[in-house]
Amino acid sequence: MPTRRVPLSVLDLAPRSQGMTPQQALQESTRLAQEVDRLGYHRYWMAEHHGSETFMSSATALLLGHMAHHTDRIRLGAGGVMLPNHSPLMVAEYYGTLATLHGDRFDLGLGRAPGTDPMTAAALARSSGQLQDFASEVAALRDYLGDTPSLPHGRGVVRALPGEGTHVPLWMLGSSTGGAQVAAALGLPFSFASHFAPDQIREALLVYRDRFRADAQTAQVDRPTVMAGVNVLVAPTQEEADHLFTTAQLMAIRIRSGQPGPLDPPVESLADAVPEQLLALAGAHQAVRAVGPPELVAERLEEFAAEHELDELILTTYAYDPELRRRSFRLLAQAWGMTAGG
Predict the structure, then answer these.
(1) Strand pairing partners for 156?
(2) Rounded alpha-carbon distances, angstroms, from residue 324 to 120, 328, 330
(3) pLDDT tens for residues 42-78?
(4) What pLDDT does residue 283 have?
(5) Which residues does 77 contact at the CB level (< 8 Å), separation at least 6?
(6) Interior/surface letters 231-267, b for 16+ CB within 10 angstroms, e for the rest
(7) CATH class name, domain 8-232+290-336
(8) Closest Cα to residue 126, out of 87, 81, 153, 92?
(9) Domain segments of the chain: what residues?
(10) Cα–Cα nearest to 86, from 154, 137, 144
(11) Alpha-carbon separation of residue 183 from 134, 199, 257, 279 (angstroms)
């Protein structure tokens, strides 16, 4: 049986349950950040989403600044910023300001997806997101955060102030070989979105490891470094865990059927709760998951990390009751042998 235990991190999208206000959802995410900080999880990342009734994480930089004020140790980061939605200079200023205020606690995960619907993406004045354009924007962002500005603009040089010299660590996010190619070419650590798009994980990690360039000017690590996402729900019994996980399955059905909304309470039977033709949409959310009692989930995570030779796992958990989400992370931390406070 595999015994390798890699660091565990947390991905939060500030989900809102039915009957919950946006303010309450953000308060619950703050409580989660404080809990996983206390328990000894490695990172707490938030992902950019726009125009969503489900997720309140549209302004990630603002939220991460708030989390920095309410936590002590845990690394904080964007998992991620959808770079084509923003100017690289502005991203450098935002995250450079966070690093200036709070020190070396921040990671900057970068993705190409819109994180929203096409109409909202247009309202964000989104750029192309094509691989070559994206790679150029990542290189520009790295330059802004470096020691010596070298991006000419007119007769001078554009500088990110604050930001310059902070060297906020960059991560590349991806769910396909496209993101893997960019991560490899730029020498960046790679976070694979296996928690919602697992189909190309083997191919993407092979491309990334085979083409990785430690000598790239933009390189952040000296060897291929991989984190991958897993859906997790831990409860004292398998029966309770499966029951609570129906909230995540209903969320997947809502999103994929174009009926997004706040998280639903768990149900006794998915088949009784949704039309038969929609049941298959719940399956996509289950592809990489660990749901059950603590030791079983820990074993599943160990196996997944060993199978893909991962350096870290990032976990996402959805529960209608925020206290049961926090309990899930508490139970797993104990089973994983985590040391409180790092």
Answers:
(1) 153
(2) 32, 6, 10
(3) 999 999 999 999 999 999 999 999 999 999 999 999 9
(4) 65
(5) 43, 44, 45, 46, 64, 106, 107, 108, 109, 171
(6) bbbbbeeeebbebbbbbbbbbbbbbeeeeeebbbebe
(7) alpha beta
(8) 87
(9) 8-232+290-336
(10) 137
(11) 11, 18, 32, 35
pLDDT at residue 285 in the model: 45
Side-chain half-sphere exposure of 304, counting CA atoms within 13 A: 27
What does the H/E/C string look like for the chain? CCCCCCCEEEEECCECECCCCHHHHHHHHHHHHHHHHHHCCCEEEECCCCCCCCECCCCHHHHHHHHHHHCCCCEEEEEEEEHHHCCHHHHHHHHHHHHHHHCCCEEEEEECCCCCCHHHHHHCCCCCCCHHHHHHHHHHHHHHHCCCCCEEECCEEECCCCCCCCCCCEEEEECCHHHHHHHHHHCCCEEECCCCCCCCHHHHHHHHHHHCCCCCCCCCCCCCCEEEEEEEEECCCHHHHHHHHHHHHHHHHHHHCCCCCCECCCCCCHHHHCCHHHCHHHHHHHCCEEEECHHHHHHHHHHHHHHCCCCEEEEECCCCCHHHHHHHHHHHHHHHCCCCCC
Of residues 14, 23, 18, the one with CA closest to residue 47: 14
The whole model's pTM is what? Answer: 0.93
Residue 153's pLDDT is: 57
301 alpha-carbon distance from chain centroid: 17
Low-confidence ranges of the chain (pLDDT < 50): 1-2, 285-286
What is the spatial distance between Cα 325 and Cα 319, in angstroms, rounded to a whole number? 5
Residues paired with residue 17 on neighbouring β-strands, in sequence order: 263
CB burial of residue 284 (10 Å; 0-12, 13-18, 19+): middle
Which tokens sit at 33? 């950040």
What one-letter code names the amino acid at 321? D
